[in-house]
Amino acid sequence: MTHLGTVIRVLIRAALDTDLDGLGEMAGSRDRAEVRLQAARRGAEEMLVAVAADRVVGVVSVRWRDGCDPPNPWLYGLAVVASARRRGIGRALVGAGEAAGAARGAEAMSLDVDVDDEAAVSFYARLGYVIVGPHRHRWRAIDPGTGAVTAEGTASTWIMRRRLRGID
Ligand SMILES: CC(C)(COP(=O)(O)OP(=O)(O)OC[C@H]1O[C@@H](n2cnc3c(N)ncnc32)[C@H](O)[C@@H]1OP(=O)(O)O)[C@@H](O)C(=O)NCCC(=O)NCCS
């Protein structure tokens, strides 16, 4: 992977089909990225990418229903390429996801992180998220072509939440 040097300008926009090739690494696999893009196309989710120097350097998704902490939207799948980290791109992606949630009237944003992922917990805490309790995260891998479930499992996570409006 090439090192980006100083990122001067980062654009955050909705993900496009043409981004798929650059998203596989950040989403875990191209199939996973495609399933997320399909959900965004159906309107079930928002999928946002950060673009710097014409290259996709970050991604996040927000699911409107059936998240880890209903009725709040669920922010998931946040990743920034290693060479572009610690420059505010993760924060900007979370902020854009929150703005999309607020625009739909959401009171709060929720997410879940693996209980042993101290770096992610620290990152989200820095952005104002607070752990509200444990969660058993059920994940499923889906074939984007057929919709068939190809793998599934569970993970122990913390639910973290941040109010988007009002006072706790
Ligand atoms: C977590 C991740 C998205 C952060 O992206 P990033 O662009 O490097 O984050 P930012 O530069 O916007 O950092 C925002 C704040 O969080 C802090 N932060 C970032 N990464 C951190 C880490 N690993 N540990 C502690 N704090 C961290 C930054 O110092 C910054 O704080 P500041 O306000 O004092 O400047 C990125 O490290 C990543 O993609 N990790 C792998 C995937 C992952 O863990 N995703 C989240 C779990 S689903």
Summarize the structure.
This protein has 168 residues and is α+β, with helices and mostly antiparallel strands. The protein has helices spanning 20-27, 30-42, 89-103, 118-126, and strands at residues 10-14, 45-52, 55-63, 74-80, 108-114, 130-142, 149-163.
Provide the fold topology.
Blueprint: E1 10-14, H1 20-27, H2 30-42, E2 45-52, E3 55-63, E4 74-80, H3 89-103, E5 108-114, H4 118-126, E6 130-142, E7 149-163
Antiparallel strand pairs: 1-2, 2-3, 3-4, 5-7, 6-7
Helix pairs in contact: 1-2
Bound molecules: coenzyme A.
InterPro entries: Acyl_CoA_acyltransferase, GNAT_dom, N-term/lysine_N-AcTrnsfr
GO molecular function: N-acetyltransferase activity
Domain N-acetyltransferase: 10-165
Describe this structure in words.
- The protein is α+β, with helices and mostly antiparallel strands and 168 residues long.
- It has a single domain, classed as 3-Layer(aba) Sandwich (Aminopeptidase), CATH 3.40.630.
- It has helices at 20-27, 30-42, 89-103, 118-126, and strands at residues 10-14, 45-52, 55-63, 74-80, 108-114, 130-142, 149-163.
- The strands form 2 sheets. It has a 4-stranded antiparallel sheet, sandwiched between helices.
- A hairpin with a 2-residue loop joins strand 2 and strand 3 (55-63).
- Coenzyme A (COA) is lined by residues 78-80, 85-91, 113, 119-120, 122-123, 126.
- The site of coenzyme A has 16 residues, from strand 4, helix 3 and helix 4.
